[in-house]
Structure formats: C-alpha cells, structure tokens
Amino acid sequence: MRSLVKLVLLGLAIGAGAALCWRLLTPGRVAPPDVPAVVEKVRQVARLEVLQVSLYRKITFAPEPVEAGSVWGALAGWLRHTVARPQGKAIVFATARLGLDVAKLQPGDVTVRERTASIVLPPLEVVVELLPGETEVIGSNLDSADTARLLELAREAFHRQVLADRGLQGRARLAAEQALTALLLQVGLDAVEFVERPAERPRSWSGR
After folding, report:
1. 37, 153, 163, 183: which has the highest count of C-beta atoms within 10 A?
2. pLDDT tens digits, one per residue of 157-198
C-alpha cells in the first residue's frame, strides 16, 4: 500500500519568525505567564490538525487468506464468511487527518517554571474519511448493504493502519510540538518542553 503524506503546517515558519521578531523588538520583557494563561492560550486552538495522509487500497472480493489479527484481516474474514462466492474488486480511497484535541488540556497537564513551560499533550487522534467520488467498485456481485459494510470495514482498517504507523505518529507529534511552541513563545515564554510521561526526558523547543 502506498501513502502520500502531506504536511499541513502552513504558517508555522512564519509564526515562529514572528514570535522571535516580537521578542527582539519589544523594549521591555513582559512577565512570564502563569499556568491558567498558558492553558487558555493553547485551548484557543481547539483541535490542532497537523498531518493529512492520502490512502488507497485495492480489495479483491475473493480474498486470499490473511494473517489473523492483521489490519485488513477483519475485512477479508468478513468476505469469506458472509458473502457467498463474492466476485469483483474495489479501489478505495480515503483521507486520514491526525491531530490533537488541545481543548481537553487541563491545568494539571501544564507547569511553568520561570519562562519555561512543561506540557503533557493529549494522545493523537485520527479521523479517516472515505472518498466515495474516487472509490471504484468493479464487477461486484455484492448488494448495496454488503457494499456499504465493505467500505465501513475498509475505513476501520485504514484507521488502524494509521494508528499503527509509528513514523506518521512521530511526524504528527513533532509538528504539533512545533506549532504550539510558535504559539506560546508569543506570550512571554523562552522555551516549551513536551513530556509524555514523568520519567521521560522532555523535548524542549526554545526561541533562542
């Protein structure tokens, strides 16, 4: 399967540059923000969408055996056991969007020490949308209900596939950290650290 990855990070470089210029040109240093101010600033973003992925998959209705527990195994098993002598194929296209619901951030997820904020980000969320206008079903003997079920299983398989892709998860997390750092440097902070668990060493971004 091929994936075309599109980074949805327009304006981050401009935002970071603007933040740095603001800090250099401001004659006096503002007082560092407190925790509620940082949380409120981040919550203003609501859902931060940081990565968009285009996906497609060719599905043959007479499936070969698929390893149990694989991402596409549920769809193949459903075809084998539900549809009598299925025929045809489909090419299914979808878009996956990775993001963070930063509106869920709580004061306990943020600490501020002098001009450095430490933030525990919420888990990444994935939303998968099928593209019916681009999806093709060819030579199918499935009825409309079975076709709808097939497409829903494909959407679920795409969702599991993206969740299991550590490369995509890492790129999305990095993009989110850069976007939030650019935002928070504008409120008087010098650096922002992102911590997933207390035992982990934080990743730090600064405006220096």
Report:
1. 183
2. 999 999 999 999 999 999 999 988 988 888 888 899 998 754
* Distance in angstroms (rounded) separating the CA atoms of residues 106 and 49: 19
Is-above-0.85 flag for pTM?
no
Residue where the block lists tokens 């750092």: 181
Between the alpha carbon of residue 104 and those of residues 43, 60, 110, the distances in Å are: 7, 41, 12
DSSP output for the chain: --EEEEE--TTHHHHHHHHHHHHHH-SSPPPPP-HHHHHHHHHTT-EEEEEEEEEEEEEESSPPP--TTSTTHHHHHHHHHHSSS---EEEEEEEEEEEEEGGG--GGGEEEETTEEEE-PPPPEEEEEE-TTT-EEES----HHHHHHHHHHHHHHHHHHHHH-HHHHHHHHHHHHHHHHHHHGGGT-SEEEE-SSTTSPPEEEE--
pLDDT tens digits, one per residue of 70-121: 778 778 777 776 766 778 899 999 999 999 888 887 778 888 888 898 999 8
State the burial class of residue 32 (Cβ atoms within 10 Å of its Cβ: 0-12, 13-18, 19+): middle
Strand duo 47-60 + 125-130: pairing: unpaired
